[in-house]
Amino acid sequence: MTQISQAAGPQVVAGSSQVSVDDALDQIGLGPFQWKLLAICGLTWAADAMEVLLMSFALPGIRAEFGLEGASAVPLLTATFLGMFVGAIFWGNLADRIGRRNVFLITVSLGVIFGLSGALAPTVTLLMVARFLTGFAIGGTLPVDYAMMAEFVPTAWRGKFLVYLESFWAVGTIIVAGLAWYLNSVMAPEDAWRWLLGLAALPMLIGLLARFGIPDSPRFLLGRGQDARARAAVDTVARSNGNADALAGIQLAPPLQQARVSAASLFSGSLSKRTILLALVWFGLSLGYYGIFTWLPTYLRAGGMELADVYRTTLLLAFAQLPGYFLAAYLVDAVGRRATVAGFLAVGAVSTYLFLSASGAGSVLATSALLSAALLGAWGSVYAYTPELFPTSVRSTAMGLMSAAARVAGLIAPSLGAMLVTGNLSAALSVFAASFAVAAIAAWSIGTETRGKQLEEVTA
C-alpha cells in the first residue's frame, strides 16, 4: 500500500513521483493566477450585490411610476430571493455534475440578459418576472465562484482569499448606493430606477468576458477521471505564476477519497451535522441582514430623512462594511474560522439592540455602522468556512444548499422588515437579534476547525 510522506514540501507518494492537487498548488505558490481569479470572481460578486440590493434603492422610483403603496412592494422585493433560492439548488448541483467552468459562464450570461430586461419592463408583473429570472441566474454564481476559489488557492492563503472574495459584496454595495444617489440627484425617481437596473448589469458583462481564460477546477477533473485536463489546469496556474517548472517530472495523484459522495450524503453520516448547523448559520445571518438592510432606506425615509440623505447614509454604511471584512480576513487565520464566525454573529446580536436603543441621527448612524461591520465580517468568515467543510464532489451542491437556506430567509425577511416601517421596530429587531444569536451558537457547535488544513485533510 502506498504511503503519503509527512515531510515538508509536496507530499510525494512513495515510488510514484506523484503529488496531490493540494500539494501541487502549495508548491506552485500564490501568484498572478489567484489574484486574477479573485478579480474576475470579485467583479461578478460585486455585480451580484448590486442586483440583490438595488431594489431597495429603486423602490421609491418604482412606487412613483406604478403607484405601489405600503406592503404591495413586498412581492417585488422577494422575487429576486425566490429566484436565487431555485437557482442556488439547481446550479450548485449542476456544477458538481458538468463542471465549475460551464456553470461559471452560463450563469453570468443569463444574469446580464435578465438584468437588462428588468430595466425595460413596462409593467410591475414583467418586472417581477425579470427579477425572479435574474435571481435564478445569479443564484448559481455563489456556489460556483466559491468552489472555484477554494479549489485553486494554496492552503496558507485560502481563508484570506475567500474573505477577500466576499469583501467585493461591499464594493457592489458602495457602487449601487453611490449610483442611486447620483441618478436620483440628476433625474426624477421614475426614470432613475430604470437606469439603475440597466447599469447594474454592466459589471457582470465585463466579468463574463474575463472568465473565458479560466480553466476548470483540477480537483473536479481528477474526481471525474480527466487526469490530462486536470494536469493542464495545474500547469496553467504554474505558468501564470512564473513557476512553470515547479512540478517537472511529477504527476498528480488521484484524490484520497476515491468514491464520489452523493448529494444525499449531506444529510447522513458525518456530513449531516455540518450541513444542518451551517444551514442554521446561513438562515439566521440572512434573516437579520436582509430584514434590516433591505428596508433601511425606506425606514430612514419614513423617519423624515430626505431621499438624497438616505442614499448618502446608506453609502456611509456600505463603507462601514470594509473594516468588518479586513478584520475577518485577519481573524480567520489568527483565531480560526469557527471562532470568527461565531464571534461576529454575537457582536451582530448585541449591535442590533444598540441600534434599537439609539436616539438621534449620530447615534443611529454609529450603531448601524457597527452592525454593518459585524454582519459583513460574519458573512466574510462564513463564506471562507463553508466550502472547506465539504468534499469536492459535493462542494458546489453544499454551497448551493447553504445559499438556498439564506434565500428562504431572504423570502421571509422583507415581511418581517416591513415592521420597521410600520412602527413595530422593537419586535422586528428582537427577531433579528435572536436569529444572530442562534446562528452564533450553531456556528460554534460545528466543532470542526479548518484553519491551516488542506481540503482533502478536512474532508477525508
UniProtKB/TrEMBL annotation:
The segment(s) forming the Major facilitator superfamily (MFS) profile domain are 37-451
Report the superkingdom from the record.
Bacteria
- InterPro entries the record matches: MFS_dom, MFS_sugar_transport-like, MFS_trans_sf, Sugar_transporter_CS
Tell me which positions the record assigns to the signal sequence. none
- Any one GO molecular-function label of the UniProt entry: transmembrane transporter activity
Q: Which Pfam families match?
A: Sugar_tr
Q: Which Gene3D superfamilies match?
A: MFS general substrate transporter like domains
- Where would you find the membrane-spanning parts of this chain? 37-59, 71-91, 103-122, 128-149, 161-183, 195-214, 276-298, 310-332, 339-358, 364-386, 398-421, 427-446
Q: Which GO terms describe its cellular component?
A: membrane
Transmembrane listed as a keyword: yes
User: Keywords in UniProt for this one?
Assistant: Membrane, Transmembrane, Transmembrane helix, Transport
Localization terms from the record? Membrane
- What kind of membrane protein is this, topologically? Multi-pass membrane protein
Spell out the protein name for this chain.
Answer: MFS transporter
